[in-house]
Amino acid sequence: MRAVPVDGDPNGRNFLGRRGDNVEIYLEGNKSYMVKRIYAVYGASGFGREVMPSARSHLSKQGIESEIVFIDDSLTTDIVNGHRVLTYAAFRMIDAEEKFISIAIADSGVRERIAETCIRDGVAFFSIPADNAVILDQVEIGTGAIICPFVSLTSNIVIGSHFHANIYSYVAHDCVIGDYVTFAPGVKCNGNVIVEDHAYIGTGAILRQGKVGKPLVIGRGAVVGMGAVVTKNVSAGTTVVGNPARLLIKN
Ligand code: UDP
């Protein structure tokens, strides 16, 4: 059971049908009404292109047939993998009543800056759970999450906003994950672990299981290097590497 669904229709309305270009008809109470909506994956580089198929499939499963575009402020091509590419400024100019974005950019600082701009501009967020992501009991997920293929989130987990779980990662029981946290592919986050805001966990890293009342803590903005085996708390803002993971001293 999904305790908190990863947002589908963000307003929880019943989709009735569709008329013309991106115009959708909804039922609220006993009244039906139409909205023109558009969805975007922000970032058309590597990660964005990996995420787009899951976005397409997730929205289609909700019966949402609105256009999904890429937003990218640097690309010069008009179309990527069959989707229009717009700058954020051009996206803002589009005539739509409701706009939704999922930010598929790995750099958490960039993600936060873009999220703040969207909030200021009245652009909403949507989450993208891959079709085969496994999400078990009592999993709370904040807005704008991207849960890639083959990810498992087991039971009793709390996750903040704009979380990225790249392919083959897992989060086990009783973990608390902050805002703008990024898991590269294949992260093994065992039970009773706290990962604070903006932490980045590299490919294949293993976070040792914490204890009830004494969780393992990865501090705010910490970086765990690829393949690291983390057995102790990691202080905020530090980088650890290796097995067992040790502080990286930069020369
Ligand atoms: N980008 C953007 N606006 C910004 C910052 C980044 O459109 O304010 C785009 C950038 O042009 C690039 C993508 O986001 O295409 C980030 O891709 P990158 O290869 O840095 O990393 P990824 O997150 O895909 O691994």
Question: Which keywords apply here?
Answer:
251 residues; alpha/beta; Rossmann fold; UDP N-Acetylglucosamine Acyltransferase, domain 1; eight-stranded mixed beta sheet; 3 helices; binds uridine-5'-diphosphate
Please report the first level of CATH classification, the CATH class of the largest domain. Answer: Mainly Beta
CATH-derived topology of the largest domain: UDP N-Acetylglucosamine Acyltransferase, domain 1
- Which ranges are low-confidence, i.e. pLDDT below 50, for 5 or more consecutive residues? 1-6
What's the pLDDT, averaged over the residues? 92
State Rg. 19 Å
Q: Any guess at the CATH architecture of the largest domain?
A: 3 Solenoid
Sheet/helix structural class: alpha/beta
What is the CATH superfamily of the largest domain?
Hexapeptide repeat proteins
Q: Outline, from the CA principal axes?
A: globular
The major β-sheet equals: 8 strands, mixed
Number of helices: 3
Bound molecules: uridine-5'-diphosphate
What is the number of E strands? 27
Number of domains: 2
Q: Sketch the topology as an H/E string, one letter per element.
A: EEEHEEEHEHEEEEEEEEEEEEEEEEEEEE
Strand content: 25-35%
